[in-house]
């Protein structure tokens, strides 16, 4: 008969599968008691492995708070990850606000699990899905008309300087940072609830089946948020696939954009160039007028957007001239050019990376820090160019078909 486990403030559920026992501890992500629960359970000596609700990226960020400084910013922009990095910084800013207000760092129980497992030399299993993959699957899963309100709500909530409400802190005690941020939408949107919660319940059970299959360990402690306790437990108790890797990898895949969205930039380019050709065929003056308007509208809106980000004057000028050309070349964006020039003119210094996590907790810090400001330059130049393309496109259509 296994020895009784220490009493905990959070719920405990135990499953025995084959020769292995899995004890799931439901934790509160903003709770000193949950961190104490984790320490007591691991120190009891009842477990020979510890699994936690973290992915490799979040574990690395927790172990190395200055991880952002190790990234090649130019590579981030080239790979199209600027938006994801900005969202991660914004979430980190929200997390710091929670810590400043409550006096407890969110995820303290995960940090306790990492530290205790390391001290006792127990295997540490990271079973949650990568946060970037979850964000991408959320983006792909929700209808396109909901995406702007969803992510503007995300950025707005994490950048607000108002005190975090007691209700939001209570939500954090049952879910994680993503769930608390999107909770307003998740309750009413199946498209959001599925990738944010239901898929992760299944994913964590599959990861456990891979990393700690029955027989590999005698007793595994699984530290997860209380909101995932029921779903993950049900998946773990039910028969899992003989090869969980196949299904797990399917939950890591990012659904590709529809063929229509992939073809749209090329279609717009073809329509604009056709508009120019029609204009010149009618009248040389009309043709040059359309070209000039395309150039000015794209350049002013995209270059003007970089002014909002307080970009270097050379960046503003370069974006003004680049945007009309990049808008006709779907393989490169105005944001990429703007960020590249900004990096060249204002290369981030060591102190920018070291103070980044602190700076982004304040709205003005996004403009003062060279790293976050470069992200803003990229995002705003991209948005300005997109708006400019549509405005100029409609202007051309109006000039050609008599509605202007």
Automatic annotation (TrEMBL):
Coiled-coil regions listed: none
Keywords: Membrane, Transmembrane, Transmembrane helix
Keyword Methyltransferase found: no
Stretches that traverse the bilayer: 263-280, 292-311, 317-341, 375-401
The keyword Membrane appears for this protein: yes
Listed Pfam families: TraB_PrgY_gumN
Domain of life: Bacteria
Entries under InterPro entries matching the protein: TraB/PrgY/GumN_fam, TraB_bac, TraB_PrgY-like
Family annotation (PANTHER family): PHEROMONE SHUTDOWN PROTEIN, TRAB DOMAIN-CONTAINING PROTEIN
Name of the protein this chain belongs to: TraB/GumN family protein
Source organism of this protein record: Vreelandella maris
